[in-house]
Task: inverse folding
């Protein structure tokens, strides 16, 4: 079962990259890790497309790689370059503790994935397990980090997890819907980027824990 | 040409024209004309539905049933009101030299675009298209929230976009899981994501996957609706957005997001029985009403007060849908209608007061506004009376319908808590508005004199909106009542 091994390997790669993102403080590296994660997602889609003769999934793979492994990382790096902030400051929870929490989240993700029906594909179970774990890790990253860029990356990690479920356990989304979603995601990242630049211009920092005027 | 596609095309064209070309005068005409035409087309679409045909397009990816028709008409109505009010709003700011050409383009482009996205939500039958449409509403409204480009508006915009995107990621996961639960029973092509297909295939959906999907989708779309505990973006966004955009959020977006919630709820109901998602809605609705209570009692800002009132009302509707009996569902849909008719009055008058005083904080506006701006203050009192649910206005009756249904069902304890919260909310809202409008007039030595109130386009729009809201309490046109009945037939069961 070479295909299913390859799928599990790629899924594991995505999970590892999510863990590395949690342990990483240099923003450039975090963005590259996100790119690698998206590349793995593209490979998963391509492998399923080729091994099961579902050619519309190849389109998904191409979109994923072009958009999420190349275009979005490039855009985010350009923003960082322009505003000149390269490191995440001390997160609300330190790195070793964060990693322990994420380990727990992975167990939870895998536990939930056992409720899914046994599909035709041997690797499906692992794909869902990884996806749910990444979802939880993404949310964790979102609440514990302070830099706006890290929050965007956390959001994108959650997005990747959703797509892993979509290619892993569904018969493939209709192409029109897929294109619509891709368009929305890229516009959302674009707007987030513009907003980050405006925030940096105004507050001379992209520390979102400073955005705390609105209460009550 | 298909009427439905035309209805969607008009605001989109208006957005493109308003955003990119023409002088200020031209933009104003395009926006008002476009949105008025849109409202007429919405009405025509609804009449086509009432005439017995089901308007649809693109393999039924867009399809108008009773629920869609009701939400569509309400959205078109608030769209045209907000467009006309918006012209006046921007003119006031132009007079104070607060508007740059960039802001003008954003305003005249984004308002019709936002209306377009909300109309698309209300007619989406395909769950994928529905998700895309909801994401479009988020994207269209972000720069409306950051419109004034202040520290606080950037903060509100950031929170709105991040929380909204997270909610939408949940909703997407929910949609994907729902689709996965179909296991090939949903057929082929684009139509396999159609809501109608899900309802047909409901008995064969995989229960565990479906349950997980419904949960994620309800939380996701519930975030957009502003159901507690996912409501935290709402007060910030309502405060920072210009009033014409605020009213679109408070009515159009709220109805649209509830529409999504209901679609998911109906799939769950058809497959798993009414208890699972019904109880979830009941819980979220009650929590929303309860959470709104303390914040209304201690509120310090007029627009945030309206936001918490909107959280209260979405909670009331969710409770009605969650109770699930025929009477409760009818009450909730009636509530949606009356709320949509009444909310613009409060937003428009509050917006005018805020513009006159250059702030929406209570301490900046100061007590006793009635002596300074009698028209806006009077309208605010009238609108508040309607929105709070005082008789003889409509919201009183819709709340009574929901309460009666609650007390005659199995959820008596929940309804009792709900009633208690409503009473406190009524008093709290009345206290805040009374203090603002009637309280002792401002100290004459205070030199922050506000601009005098004028009877301009915005004020006239507010007066018209108030007339509609008052008349609707005594007379609902037969076709609107027919739409509410058709919608409650969809939500109560059957397609």
Result:
């Amino acid at each position: 079962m070479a295909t299913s091994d390859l799928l599990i390997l790629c899924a594991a790669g995505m999970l590892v990259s999510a863990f590395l993102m949690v342990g990483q403080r240099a923003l450039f590296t975090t963005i590259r890790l996100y790119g690698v994660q998206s590349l793995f997602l593209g490979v998963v889609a391509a492998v399923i497309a080729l091994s099961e003769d579902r050619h519309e999934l190849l389109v998904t793979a191409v979109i994923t790689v072009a958009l999420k492994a190349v275009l979005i990382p490039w855009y985010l790096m350009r923003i960082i370059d322009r505003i000149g902030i390269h490191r995440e400051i001390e997160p609300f929870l330190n790195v070793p503790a964060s990693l322990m929490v994420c380990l727990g989240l992975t167990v939870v993700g895998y536990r939930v994935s056992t409720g899914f029906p046994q599909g035709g594909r041997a690797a499906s179970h692992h794909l869902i397990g990884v996806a749910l774990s990444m979802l939880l890790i993404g949310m964790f990253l979102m609440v514990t980090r302070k830099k706006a860029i890290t929050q965007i990356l956390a959001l994108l990690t959650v997005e990747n997890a959703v797509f892993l479920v979509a290619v892993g356990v569904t018969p493939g989304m209709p192409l029109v819907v897929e294109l619509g979603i891709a368009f929305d995601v890229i516009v959302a990242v674009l707007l987030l980027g513009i907003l980050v630049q405006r925030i940096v211009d105004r507050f001379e920092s992209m520390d979102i824990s400073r955005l705390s005027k609105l209460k009550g | 040409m298909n009427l439905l596609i035309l209805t969607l095309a008009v605001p989109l064209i208006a957005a493109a024209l308003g955003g990119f070309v023409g002088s200020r005068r031209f933009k104003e005409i395009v926006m008002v004309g476009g949105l008025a035409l849109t409202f007429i087309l919405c009405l025509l679409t609804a009449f086509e539905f009432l005439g017995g045909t089901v308007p649809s397009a693109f393999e039924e990816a867009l399809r108008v049933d009773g629920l869609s028709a009701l939400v569509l008409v309400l959205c078109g109505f608030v769209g045209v009101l907000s467009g006309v009010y918006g012209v006046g709003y921007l003119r006031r700011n132009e007079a104070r030299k607060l508007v740059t050409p960039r802001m003008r383009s954003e305003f005249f482009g984004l308002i019709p675009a936002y209306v377009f996205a909300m109309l698309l939500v209300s007619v989406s039958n395909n769950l994928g298209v529905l998700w895309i449409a909801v994401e479009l509403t988020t994207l269209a409204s972000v720069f409306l929230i950051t419109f004034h480009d202040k520290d606080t508006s950037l903060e509100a915009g950031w929170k709105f976009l991040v929380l909204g995107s997270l909610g939408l990621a949940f909703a997407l996961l929910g949609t994907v899981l729902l689709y996965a639960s179909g296991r090939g029973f949903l057929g082929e092509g684009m139509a396999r994501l159609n809501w109608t297909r899900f309802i047909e295939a409901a008995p064969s959906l995989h229960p565990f996957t479906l349950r997980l999907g419904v949960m994620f989708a309800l939380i996701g779309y519930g975030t957009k609706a502003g159901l507690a505990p996912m409501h935290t973006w709402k007060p910030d966004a309502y405060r920072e957005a210009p009033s014409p955009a605020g009213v679109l959020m408070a009515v159009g977006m709220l109805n649209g997001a509830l529409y999504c919630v209901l679609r998911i709820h109906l799939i769950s109901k058809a497959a798993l029985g009414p208890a699972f998602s019904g109880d979830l809605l009941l819980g979220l609705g009650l929590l929303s009403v309860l959470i709104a209570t303390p914040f209304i009692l201690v509120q310090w800002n007029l627009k945030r007060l309206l936001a918490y009132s909107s959280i209260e009302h979405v909670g009331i509707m969710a409770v009605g849908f969650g109770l699930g009996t025929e009477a409760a569902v009818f009450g909730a849909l009636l509530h949606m209608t009356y709320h949509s008719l009444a909310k613009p009055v409060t937003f428009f008058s509050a917006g005018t007061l805020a513009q006159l005083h250059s702030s929406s904080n209570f301490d900046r506006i100061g007590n006793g506004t009635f002596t300074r701006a009698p028209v806006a203050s009077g309208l605010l009192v009238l609108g508040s009376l309607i929105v709070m649910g005082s008789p003889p206005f409509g919201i009183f009756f819709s709340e009574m319908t929901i309460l009666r249904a609650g007390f005659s069902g199995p959820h008596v304890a929940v309804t009792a808590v709900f009633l208690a919260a409503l009473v406190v909310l009524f008093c709290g809202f009345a206290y805040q508005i009374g203090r603002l409008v009637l309280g002792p007039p401002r100290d004459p030595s205070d030199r922050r004199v506000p601009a005098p109130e004028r009877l301009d386009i915005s004020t006239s729009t507010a007066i018209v909106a108030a007339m509609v809201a008052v008349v609707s309490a005594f007379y609902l046109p037969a076709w609107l009542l027919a739409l509410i009945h058709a919608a409650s037939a969809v939500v109560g069961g059957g397609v």
